[in-house]
Write a structure and sequence with these properties.
With about 350 residues, this protein is of the alpha/beta class. The chain is built from eleven helices and ten strands.
Length: about 350
């Protein structure tokens, strides 16, 4: 397993991070524990969750993922060897069942953090993340920014930074990060943190894959120059980049079949065409598309850890094994040709 620094002053994390959003919806508690055991035994020390999970978001399963991780953590003596990350939900209608009001002020951060710590059965988290921006901006498959002159959001980043400083000082959070954030948002936070001597975010968790490389447009340079780690999610485009949907190997319980109204960004014709071309490259070079897609993400200089998810142990084994796969110049050149022809079909 390869290990990288998280941000400028964070811990060493495995290049593969175990994403857990299926725990409590597509995976039972016993299956979740089995995945956690396997990942840990194979060098993965980084586990990512959120108060929102499992997904799709609904009141009946909210917090179940953290509870499953907590029941696994309970009584273990090796907690200090793990890096546990979770997230607080921002103000969006699909999360209204979690808490009212939703947001990132001091009281909301305190309430959400204490609830997460209780479910996780730990007295601290290594990385606490803002799950998405509280303002209106382009994330969750929105390609462009459209300004709303009637927006009532006020810049609260300084308040968030001051609250995070106090939470970090309390010992309940070691580091903090952003998620689904834009270049402006990341730079605004870094500027205020440096100006006021407050803790910088060590990471940003955004989508990144062969069919969504929009992170490279602005955020990649910021991460490299400012020492912020990218934690890509959806590196397999919710299973599309395994090739199983193209080859007819998907099942009714496969995620995009089980939840047909969700994550439609991965269902477009351009996405399917791009993936067909990537599959041809993988087969030409005797690679599985899964491992080619993950290896491409693993080896990006701005990536510290790649957040994979699985519903079966077989999928998990293949995903973790991608840490040992490195793509040749020939493969990378062919990938670039597809990207140039069909850029970012699933933002």
């Amino acid at each position: 397993m390869i290990y990288n620094k998280l941000g400028q002053n964070g811990p060493e994390v495995s290049v593969i991070c175990l994403g857990t959003m299926t725990f409590g919806e597509q995976n039972t508690e016993a299956e979740a524990h089995q995945q956690l055991d396997y990942a840990l035994a194979n060098g993965v020390n980084f586990i990512d969750t959120a108060e929102l999970y499992s997904t799709p978001a609904r009141a009946e399963t909210q917090g179940s993922t953290e509870r499953y991780i907590g029941s696994w953590l309970a009584g273990r003596s090796d907690r200090a060897d793990m890096v546990i990350a979770t997230k607080i939900a921002g103000d969006r209608p699909f999360a209204n069942h979690i808490r009212q009001p939703l947001g990132f002020n001091r009281n909301q951060l305190e309430e959400a953090l204490e609830a997460s710590l209780g479910r996780l059965k730990t007295n601290y988290v290594d990385l606490y993340q803002l799950h998405w921006p509280n303002r209106n901006t382009n994330f969750f498959s929105q390609r462009g920014f459209k300004y709303d002159p009637d927006e009532r959001w006020e810049d609260d980043f300084l308040d968030v930074l001051e609250s995070m400083q106090d939470i970090i000082n309390s010992g309940r959070v070691l580091h903090w990060g952003l998620s689904n954030e834009t270049p402006w948002g990341l730079m605004r936070v870094l500027h205020l943190a440096d100006k006021h001597g407050l803790p910088r975010p060590v990471s940003i968790q955004n989508p990144y894959s062969l069919v969504n490389r929009t992170f490279e447009i602005g955020l990649a340079e910021i991460c490299m120059r400012e020492g912020v780690s990218c934690l890509p999610y959806s590196p397999l485009a919710f299973g599309r980049l395994s090739g199983k949907y193209l080859k007819g190997q998907d099942k009714p319980e496969s995620r995009l079949n089980k939840f047909p109204g969700q994550w439609t960004r991965y269902n477009g014709d351009n996405t399917k065409e791009a993936i067909a071309r990537y599959l041809a490259i993988a087969e030409k070079h005797d690679l599985s598309l899964t491992q080619m897609a993950l290896a491409f993400v693993n080896d990006q200089a701005f990536v510290s850890s790649n957040i994979i998810g699985a519903t079966t142990l077989e999928q998990l084994q293949e995903n973790i094994a991608s840490a040992e796969v490195h793509l040749s110049r020939a493969v990378l050149s062919e990938i670039e040709r597809v990207h140039n022809a069909i850029p970012d079909p699933a933002p």
